[in-house]
Design a protein that fits this description.
Oligomer: single chain
Structural class: alpha/beta
CATH topology: TIM Barrel
Radius of gyration: 18 Å
Number of helices: 7
CATH class: Alpha Beta
Helix content: 25-40%
Strand order of the largest sheet: 1-2-3-4-5-6-9-11
Order of helices and strands: EEHEHEHEHHEEEHEEHE
Strand content: 15-25%
CATH superfamily: Aldolase class I
Number of strands: 11
Largest sheet: 8 strands, mixed
Bound molecules: iron/sulfur cluster
CATH architecture: Alpha-Beta Barrel
Length: 256
């Protein structure tokens, strides 16, 4: 069952990775917009007709964020991070750069010292504005689910051709701390067996992690029923094994 975020600001929610997280959804509250169409996406499949004029209104979004941050501060609610996530890819918002600048100012005013996290599939990182916006993000978390283009095509279903090598080079050239998120899944996809937790896939992923040297890798497994019903959750023992291999290469891992 897919879950769409019904609000532009939600939480603080207890996040599996970040603690008490105030969610920021720049995408529509009733629909998903993404450059990927991941077979495991908790927001479900991309709609057939995407309306790109229904992103969160910048002024309304910032007012809503300020109201929430002021309330959290006055009631002394626990807050660890502010997280860009929501119904799709946050950086697709046409005003993402200026929004990121304003969000950082509001964070400094009401929640000084708390980190701003961006969960992104990374497909927009080639754009100058998006690179600039990272100046206002403490921790960008980039998606890499496989080192093989065929597997990326099956798992993430990118809208446009995706050049993995160019992506890795761009991440390296950012020259700043980043994290990587990887979802491990297996199952039949268009009658082809896909398993990015296989030994071959994991060895190739390890090569990429070692090149990028992220501050950590976040390993995910299915938490809810995915849009592609034939997908299976990877067993905890397998994820533990993958996590061990990553740790042995000197890279920190977060997983549940
Ligand atoms: S990148 Fe994220 S939002 Fe986009 S389809 Fe994949 S899981 Fe869903």
């Amino acid at each position: 069952m897919s879950i769409l975020f019904q609000h532009i600001i939600y939480g603080p929610v207890r996040s599996r990775r970040f603690g008490h997280s105030l969610g920021m959804n720049l995408l529509p509250v009733n629909s998903k917009i993404c450059t990927y169409n991941c077979i495991y996406c908790e927001c479900g499949w991309n709609p057939e007709n995407t309306q790109h004029d229904i992103f969160a209104n910048k002024k309304v979004f910032l007012q809503e964020l300020e109201k929430n941050l002021a309330f959290i501060q006055s009631t002394q609610q626990p807050l660890d991070v502010l997280t860009y996530a929501g119904n799709g890819e946050p950086t697709l918002h046409p005003e993402f750069l200026t929004i990121a600048q304003e969000v950082a100012k509001l964070r400094d005013k009401y929640a000084y010292g708390k980190k701003i996290v961006l969960l992104t599939n990374g497909t927009t990182i080639f754009h100058h504005d998006i690179k600039q916006s990272l100046l206002y993000i403490d921790l960008p978390v980039f998606k890499i689910d496989s080192a093989k283009y065929e597997t990326i095509k099956r798992i993430n279903q990118p809208h446009a051709k995706f050049n993995l090598e160019q992506y890795i080079e761009t991440l390296l050239n950012l020259n700043r701390p980043i994290a990587i998120q990887t979802m491990l899944v297996k199952g039949l996809v268009n009658n082809q067996w896909v398993d990015n937790s296989s030994n071959e896939e994991v060895q190739l992923l390890l090569d990429i992690y070692k090149r990028i040297r992220p501050i950590y890798v976040m390993l995910y497994s299915l938490d809810r029923k995915p849009p592609l019903s034939s997908l299976q959750k990877i067993e905890s023992a397998v994820i533990e094994q993958v996590a061990k291999q990553i740790e042995q290469s000197g890279i920190k891992v977060l997983w549940v």
